[in-house]
């Protein structure tokens, strides 16, 4: 069943928490503290510094300060491919007694193909005026093939954009190779410093580049910052990474923050911004989203996505019919809950999935197809008048 675009937009709006823009901006003062970039506090790993720059650390996952480390890790939430019907799963975890946090998980290409994390909404927009971009001190610890995924940095500058955000791709392999070469050590003893200039960010919708979109303007502050690991490149049309490596990944992260190109080569003092709690963000949602969100969640249930994936595996790889696959599910559950509860649970699942299918078909007939038809008509009229036509999301 195709996922209605309307509910993709709705889900993304709700996930961005639809928080209200504040007239104030959270400011990180350039009060730099000189610190060795080749020997971070509490670590034997080396962190080369390619261009001369000053760094304002926003999130610090090192052992320099336990409170800062914990607050930095708790500032993020996951944003995986459930919105596309996928079953990927990832999380940023604080690693006790280690000089980093771990962003790890399993990326599946069945129905999706990306894992992501982002900050909870900042209480006030993060002031990025005068900064040249974002930096990330990290290392891919799970495997030596970062080039087989697409790595992206994300920023949100407008709370009303919904699924539209600014993204920039970065070359993790190049950063890791340069770090290893500069340190003359193995990967286990090296940290790569990734630089993502603000001028590299482009307006996207999902993995799709919005043609002729505005350039990133950080004068109004940043509302959220995130990272994405994906099988999709940023392009006008859907473009996948060749020989994409799905499955387990584990990125160790030490720091994330702003940088300014200058000659000081100094590491700034960490000022972790305050974020809204999930409960506070939920309360700030518009009333209409609170009403429609339960319906949206019906389409983006991760449990339902995993059931569909399991059904596909049983039917395609084990050559089971749908009925045999359902009976197999009852048999598996029977061992832990008994026959009657297993049958009842299976019937409940079938009922919910059937309702989802019927509702999806009804929405397509009364809403999605008419809207697509109107879109075709409007685009045809615009083309005839010589006006600019935006590429629709589904094409």
From TrEMBL:
Protein name according to UniProt: NADH:ubiquinone oxidoreductase intermediate-associated protein 30 domain-containing protein
Keyword Signal: yes
Limits of the NADH:ubiquinone oxidoreductase intermediate-associated protein domain: 69-252
Keyword match Signal: yes
Alphabetical UniProt keywords: Signal
One matching Pfam family: CIA30
InterPro entries: NADH-UbQ_OxRdtase-assoc_prot30, NDUFAF1
Species assigned in the record: Cyclotella cryptica
Signal sequence region: 1-18
Higher taxonomy: Eukaryota, Sar, Stramenopiles, Ochrophyta, Bacillariophyta
């Amino acid at each position: 069943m195709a996922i209605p675009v309307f509910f993709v937009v709705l889900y993304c709006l709700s996930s961005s928490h639809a928080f209200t823009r504040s007239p104030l901006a959270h400011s990180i003062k350039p009060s730099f503290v000189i610190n060795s970039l080749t020997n971070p506090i509490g670590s034997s790993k080396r962190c080369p510094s390619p261009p001369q720059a000053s760094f304002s650390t926003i999130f610090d996952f090192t052992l320099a300060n336990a409170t800062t480390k914990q607050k930095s890790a708790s500032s993020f939430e996951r944003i995986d491919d459930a919105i596309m019907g996928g079953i990927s799963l990832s999380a940023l975890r604080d690693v006790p007694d280690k000089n980093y946090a771990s962003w790890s998980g399993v990326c599946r290409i069945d129905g999706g193909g990306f894992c992501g994390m982002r900050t909870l909404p900042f209480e006030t927009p993060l002031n990025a005026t005068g900064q040249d971009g974002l930096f990330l001190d990290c290392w891919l610890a799970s495997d030596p093939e970062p080039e087989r995924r697409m790595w992206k940095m994300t920023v949100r500058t407008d709370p009303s954009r919904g699924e539209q955000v600014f993204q920039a791709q970065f070359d993790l392999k190049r950063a890791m190779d340069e770090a290893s070469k500069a340190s003359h050590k193995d990967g286990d003893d090296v940290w790569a410093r990734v630089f993502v200039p603000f001028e590299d960010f482009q307006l996207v919708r999902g993995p799709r580049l919005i043609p002729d979109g505005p350039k990133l303007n950080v004068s109004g502050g940043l509302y959220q910052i995130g990272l994405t690991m994906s099988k999709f490149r940023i392009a006008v049309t859907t473009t996948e990474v060749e020989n994409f490596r799905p499955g387990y990944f584990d990125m160790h992260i030490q720091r994330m923050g702003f940088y300014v190109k200058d000659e000081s080569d100094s590491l700034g003092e960490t000022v972790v911004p305050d974020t809204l709690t999930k409960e506070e963000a939920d309360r700030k949602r518009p009333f209409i989203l609170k009403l429609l969100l339960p319906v949206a969640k019906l389409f983006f249930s991760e449990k339902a996505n995993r059931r569909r994936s399991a059904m596909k595996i049983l039917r395609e790889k084990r050559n089971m019919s749908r009925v045999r696959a359902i009976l197999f599910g009852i048999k598996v559950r029977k061992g832990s809950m008994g026959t009657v509860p297993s049958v009842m649970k299976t019937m409940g699942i079938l009922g919910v999935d059937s309702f989802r299918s019927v509702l999806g078909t009804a929405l397509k007939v009364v809403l999605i197809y008419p809207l697509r038809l109107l879109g075709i008509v409007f685009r045809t009229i615009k083309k005839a008048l010589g006006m600019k036509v935006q590429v629709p999301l589904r094409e």
